[in-house]
Amino acid sequence: MPATAFSVKFARELDVDQLATLMTGAQPTQDRDGAELLSGFGDAIRADIQCSSCGKFGASVVRSARSRVSRAVLRQAHFRFVDPNGGDAHHPFCEFYGDDETRSTQDSLLDFGSEKSSETRAIRLLVCKGIEQGIFDQRRIRDMRQWFFDLKSASRFTVSLPLEAIQWAYSLQRHPHYQRWQFHPSQAEMPAFDWKAAAKKQFTEEHLDLFDLVTGRLVPSDEATWKQAGELARKNHGREVFDTTKLQPYYEAALSLCVFVAANSNIDFGKRQPEHYRWKGAPPALLALCALVLFVSDWDMNAAIAAFAKLLAAPTPSDLALGNVIGLNPFHEYGAWRLVIASSGVAARSPHGLDYGAQLAAIEAALREQHRQWKDRQPRG
Ligand SMILES: [Zn+2]
């Protein structure tokens, strides 16, 4: 349920009350809220309001709902996008497609206007300065979203990997494959011989080509990203989705700019060290702003850095409401999707199944058998 959407006429992202004020000239009140003020403006809204993500038209206003007893707001006023046949007007890949009233979009939407953390405060200030300095405006922010949406939807990937593939790829990435060791049955004569470790080392020797693939394709990721990858693979099994890997060069560029800005701006972007952004992710608001600045700089890194230097040197903006824009994080779920796609490739090149534990157990049994046979052949003393 998009609480805000983009008005072409007013060239900015608006919620229902803000749109009502601009369209009707009247201020919403407790008794006549924005949705009521807009009741005669259906055609104008359908023609003017675009989905923030996929850019489709066809919006209507859904009124807020209040509890009869407590008068508490149960549902915020929001926009619904309906096509001429009464169906969902969003692009099928739009994050709002098939949206129900309760689904949260908190993850993918960043509210630059909220001041919850020092990081969002810092970013909001920079967004205001950027708009005031003419480096970007809300129209360009909308253009960036559309550009990312079109880029992603132009290439597709069908999620067909077996569900165990994620766990398999995860296990391979955690497997200490850099330790090389050749087993010999005589080693097992050691009083505390570690069969489990021997099986792991043997596994490495038998899967060297697979580890080349893992090193090349699987970006080291934290537990949370792997978990999210598993959920995405399960939820979207058999479905066609965005091929998120198309975002890679833009993600790399935005991440590099984040690291540079965080390390050289003298602004506190939170506890995480900039050099860890590559493994643990960058602060989402900073990542979104870096993507925006790169976008308006035609993805030229030094032009983007020059724009940042200008932003940082600009005087305190006179109007903090300028930063009251919901910025879509173009890299929402990017890390997890990248793991899904890489795991799919690794699974396709794994001829002996995808059960890591079972393979280790089989290798251990084979090594024990080798040792038994070897021992049988030794002269008895
Ligand atoms: Zn949409």
Keywords:
381 residues, mainly alpha, 3-stranded antiparallel sheet, two-stranded antiparallel ribbon, 15 helices, 11 strands, 48% helix, 9% strand, binds zinc ion
Bound molecules: zinc ion
Q: How would you sum up the global shape?
A: elongated
Radius of gyration: 27 Å
Number of domains: 2
Mean pLDDT level: 87
Name the helix and strand elements from N-terminus to C-terminus, one letter apiece: EEHHHEEEEEEHHEHHHHEHHHHEHH
Secondary structure layout plus pairing:
Layout: E1 4-7, E2 12-15, H1 16-24, H2 34-37, H3 42-48, E3 49-50, E4 59-62, E5 65-66, E6 73-75, E7 78-81, E8 109-111, H4 118-132, H5 138-153, E9 156-158, H6 164-174, H7 195-206, H8 208-217, H9 223-235, E10 240-242, H10 248-264, H11 277-280, H12 284-296, H13 301-313, E11 326-328, H14 334-348, H15 356-377
Antiparallel strand pairs: 1-2, 1-3, 4-7, 5-6, 8-11, 9-10
The structure holds zinc ion (ZN).
Residues 51, 53-54, 56, 90-91, 94, 96 line the site of zinc ion.
Structure description:
This protein is mainly alpha-helical. It folds into 2 domains: 102 residues, no CATH class; 276 residues, no CATH class. It has 15 helices and 11 strands. It has a 3-stranded antiparallel β-sheet. The chain has a two-stranded antiparallel ribbon with strand order 4-7. A two-stranded antiparallel ribbon has the order 5-6. A hairpin with a 6-residue loop joins strand 5 and strand 6. The longest helix has 22 residues. About 2% of the residues have low confidence. Zinc ion (ZN) binds next to loops. The site of zinc ion (ZN) has 8 residues, from loops.
